[in-house]
Amino acid sequence: MYCTQCGVALDNPDRFCRQCGQRTGVDAPPRPVSHNLTRDMRNKKIAGVCAGFARYLEVDVVLVRVLWLAVALCTGVGFIAYLVAWIVMPKEWQPAAAAEYAAQHS
Ligand SMILES: [Zn+2]
Asked: 0.70 cut: is pTM over it?
């Protein structure tokens, strides 16, 4: 594709022209889900906190649960941290998860 203003050749993912800064009409690529620290409503056990962290850190959710539980049992901080995370982390409202939630609570 080419810039509509100066005619310079553009790479497809470019949102702005390198030459003159004109918008190219290419939308920003969607952010990968894993970059949002949200509670994972599809893979949750309690509130989706561990699943959300696992997805965010791109590690196995079982590993997160084991580590979190170990910290919780050893120090007690984990329980408070879980409650805090539960409160502050937004729910993930992807269409699939939302539909599933609606089906369970209708
Ligand atoms: Zn241009």
From this structure: no
